Amino acid sequence: MLVKGAFEKAKLYLESRSRESAQTIKTGPCITISRETGAGADIVSEFLAEYLQKFNDSPVKWTIFYKNLIEIVINDHNLPAAIKDLMQEKKYSHINNFVNELLAGSPGHYTLEHKTAETILRLAGMGNVIIVGRGSSIITSKLPNCFHVRLIAPVEKRIQHVQEVYGISTKSEALDFLKHEDEARAKYIKTQFHKDITDSQLYHMILNTGTLSYKVSAEIIGDTVLKLFK
């Protein structure tokens, strides 16, 4: 069966898990990926899932949770679809949270992030998942089946990547995009978890995709996970 959409793949993953008893399927590994903007986490994740699937004898396929994670959170907690836009906004004002809950009747960001953490922990506990971003390395830090990776790359390499992926025409625009996204992610981690996203102690492995190809990076991660989680 050919499944094109990331959300459809995620749904199939959850359906396959629900069909099988927890007693018949061992919990597989969970890989979390933190990244600098433009370091190629999207491509590395695809290569990694394909690589690990070659060695997978479980009926549960390796599945990536990245941009589709928001939809899974919404489904998990029966949230209104309009919440998706709210979750994509990086606003962390206590006043905004209060107004959202009291006047608009929608969950504030801290409530949403709590629900997101619950979903991430559920997915990580199932295993055979690659979770990108959303502080997943911190949320799952105490789970024994999790392996945490951060991807970095030189600015020029990242500029080239975002220009190709997002169709940004000039280098200056691409650089502004990188700075904005990296600052937003750093603020998110600092605000929600009181951590520094660049702290190497949060990760088992840091890879430079400027000196390693995306495919080689994926295979290094995959080989390490296969050795650690026999």
Summarize the structure.
The chain is α/β, with parallel strands linked by helices and 230 residues long. Helices cover 54% and strands 10% of the residues.
Describe this structure in words.
The protein is α/β, with parallel strands linked by helices and 230 residues long. It has a single domain, classed as P-loop containing nucleotide triphosphate hydrolases (Rossmann fold, 3-Layer(aba) Sandwich), CATH 3.40.50.300. The protein is built from 10 helices and 5 strands. It has helices at 6-19, 41-53, 69-76, 83-88, 94-104, 109-126, 136-139, 155-166, 171-193, 214-228, and strands at 30-35, 63-65, 129-132, 146-152, 205-208. Helix 3 (69-76) crosses helix 6 (109-126). The longest helix has 23 residues, at 171-193. It is globular and about 50 Å long. Residues 89-99 have low confidence and may be disordered.
Give the secondary structure arrangement, pairings included.
Elements (H helix, E strand, L loop, with lengths): L5 H14 L10 E6 L5 H13 L9 E3 L3 H8 L6 H6 L5 H11 L4 H18 L2 E4 L3 H4 L6 E7 L2 H12 L4 H23 L11 E4 L5 H15 L2
Parallel strand pairs: 1-3, 1-4, 2-3, 4-5
Helix pairs in contact: 2-10, 3-6, 8-9
